[in-house]
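#struct-queue
[09:14] JT: dropping the first one here, sequence first, then the C-alpha cells:
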Amino acid sequence: MASGAVSPAFAYTVVYVKDVARSAAFYSAAFGYSVRRLDQSLKWAELESGATTIAFTPLHQRETDALTGAGQAPGAAGERGPVEICFDYADVDAAYRHAVDSGAVPVSAPEQKSWGQKVGYVRDIDGIVVRMGSHVRA
C-alpha cells in the first residue's frame, strides 16, 4: 500500500439471494450461525459470524442494480457462481450431515485432500456453493 494509506479491515461478505429472511434462517439452521439482524424491510440480514459479517440482500434492488449491475444467481444445477463460501469445522463429516439434513443440496461428501484438509461441498437454497472444510495449520 502507498505511504499514508489506511489499513482496511475485511468487514462484510454480502450474499445476493432470492429471499433474505429465508436465506438467513437457512444459514442459521444448516451451518450453525445465529441471525444478528434481520431488517424490517427484509432487504438486509446479518449473521453472527465473527470479525467478518456474512450479510444477505436481494438479488435485485433499485438501490444497487443501476450502480453496479444486477446480481446473477447460478442459472442451472451444474453452474457455479464466481464466489464460494467456505466454513471451517472441527468435525466436517458431522457438519456436512447436519447441513444436508437442514436442506443443503449435497454436491460432494467430505474427503481427505492431499494438502491435509478434509473438504465437502453443498449448495445453499439459492444454488451457491458452500465449501465445508477442516482448518489446515501451517
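[09:21] JT: and here's the second one, same format:
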Amino acid sequence: MDILMISEVFYRKLAVITKVLGAAGVFLMLVVVSVNAQERFTYVLSMFDPVSYQVSQLPEKGREDITLSWGGRIWAFSNEGNRDAFRHSPEVYAPLFQGCDALSLAQGYRAEGLAKIYLIYDQQLMLFQGREHRALFLSAPDTLLVKAKSHAGDVKCGPYQ
C-alpha cells in the first residue's frame, strides 16, 4: 500500500466518523429542545385551579386556554375571574412551600405534595404526599408549620422565584 492509498482510506474513515458525530450532536440537540419544551408546558397542581381550592368546596380542573406564568411555573385556571384574582394576589392562592409536603418539611426533608391531598390552614394552601401526612400535620399544626418554614429554604421548597 502506498502513502496515497493510506491517506485516502484515512480521510474516508474520518468523513464517516464526522458524519456519525454530527448526527449524534443533532440528536442530542433535539433531545434537549424536546425536554425544554416539555418543562415549559408542565402545569402546577396537576392543572388544578389554585384559586378554586379557596373559593370552592373542591378544587376544579384548570383549562389550557386560561393560564398564567408566575413564579417560574405555568398555572391553569377554570375561569378568567380566578386567573385575575391569582394575578392580583398570587401569594394568597399559590401553595405554601412550592407544593412540597408540609409534614416532610417539618421533619427536615423534601417530598412533593399531591394536588388532591391538601389542606387550607390559616388561609394558606398546603399539599401533602398522603392522607396520613395530612392527619399527622393536623395533630400539631402550629408547631409543625413553624418547623416546616424553618426547613423550607434548606431543601429548595422556599418562596417562588
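[09:30] RK: nice, looked through the second one.
[09:31] RK: Strands lie at 63-70, 73-77, 114-121, 124-128.
[09:31] JT: good to know. Residues 34-40 have pLDDT under 50 and may be disordered.
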